[in-house]
Automatic annotation (TrEMBL):
Gene3D superfamilies: NAD(P)-binding Rossmann-like Domain, ProC C-terminal domain-like. Residues 163-267 form the Pyrroline-5-carboxylate reductase dimerisation domain. PROSITE patterns: P5CR. It comes from Alloalcanivorax venustensis ISO4. This is Pyrroline-5-carboxylate reductase. It comes from the Bacteria. Its main location: cytoplasm. Pathway: Amino-acid biosynthesis; L-proline biosynthesis; L-proline from L-glutamate 5-semialdehyde: step 1/1. Its EC number is 1.5.1.2. Keywords: Amino-acid biosynthesis, Cytoplasm, NADP, Oxidoreductase, Proline biosynthesis. Catalyzes the reduction of 1-pyrroline-5-carboxylate (PCA) to L-proline. Belongs to the pyrroline-5-carboxylate reductase family. It catalyses: L-proline + NAD(+) = (S)-1-pyrroline-5-carboxylate + NADH + 2 H(+); L-proline + NADP(+) = (S)-1-pyrroline-5-carboxylate + NADPH + 2 H(+).
Length: 269
């Protein structure tokens, strides 16, 4: 990213995670600016990351080459409208991480500017995220590379050719952590119903989930093959999986993801 300066409008959890990830990958804190209305939050950020901070969004926007919009979707319009003049004048790369806020929305508020829209997920907070990215047609290859480097600081990145594909990303990886958390909850409850203590049930389930994930990530084989290896004919795993199959688990997952995508499309619209 050469020596471009990077600014954040909003210093919440995701912005903090991105800043921390970039610094961990070698970007000097002096190249990062963050703004937020909360002085307490800015003090925490400055102490944690040693970055520049300001309560003035315009002050940050005037200084940087890349501006990450990290405010809540419901206040994005007001935040952008106040930045419109300086954005049209300086033309920084705009990176939005707000769910449901489209490129057209941003252009209506900001005017013409190169925009990359991103859909990170909550594991990004621990540098284990999966982020979908879409670049408007006027974004250069160099700017796409910058956006990819920033978001890769918190996990894997995936580029998509059409903005509508981000609705599918939202349904799979954006909402996906909640699907796994629900399964963890249910498995913990099931373990307790079998007589295990709450603490033991939680530790067993979380370690099993982490181990299964690591095995799937590091293996050359797909989850289907790994599942088959664990499942001996007529064994305990086969008995459990038969219950899932008879309950229509696969169909329920398909329906759940479709419902999440439909809601994402409604929100984007």
């Amino acid at each position: 990213m050469a020596q471009q300066l990077i600014g954040f409008i909003g210093a919440g959890n995701m912005a903090n995670s991105l800043a921390g990830g970039m610094i961990a990958k070698g970007i000097r804190p002096a190249r990062i600016w963050m703004s937020d209305p909360s002085q307490d939050r800015l003090d925490e950020v400055a102490q944690l990351h040693r970055v520049h901070v300001s309560r003035d969004n315009l002050d940050v926007a005037r200084r940087v080459d890349v501006l990450v919009l990290a405010v809540k979707p419901q206040v994005m319009g007001d935040a952008c409208a106040a930045l419109r003049e300086i954005i049209e004048e300086r033309q920084p790369l705009i990176i939005s991480i707000a769910a449901g806020v489209t490129v057209d929305n941003l252009r209506n508020w900001l005017g013409e500017a190169p925009i990359v829209r991103c859909m990170p997920n909550t594991p990004s907070l621990v540098q284990a995220g999966a982020t979908g990215l879409y670049a408007a047609p006027d974004v250069s290859a160099e700017q796409k590379e910058m956006a990819g480097q920033i978001l890769s600081a918190v996990g894997l990145t995936f580029w998509f050719e059409t903005e509508g594909e981000l609705d599918a990303v939202t349904a799979v990886s954006g909402s996906g952590p909640a699907y796994f958390f629900l399964l963890m909850e249910a498995l913990i409850d099931a373990a307790r119903a079998q007589g295990l203590s709450a603490a033991t049930a939680r530790q067993l389930v979380l370690q099993t989930a982490w181990g299964a994930s690591q095995l799937a990530i590091t293996s050359e084989d797909g989850p289907d093959v790994l599942r088959q290896r664990v499942t001996s004919p007529g064994g305990t795993t086969a008995a459990a999986l038969q219950v899932f199959e008879e309950a229509g688990l696969r169909e329920q997952v398909q329906a759940a993801v479709a419902a999440a995508r439909e809601r994402s499309e409604q929100l984007s619209g």
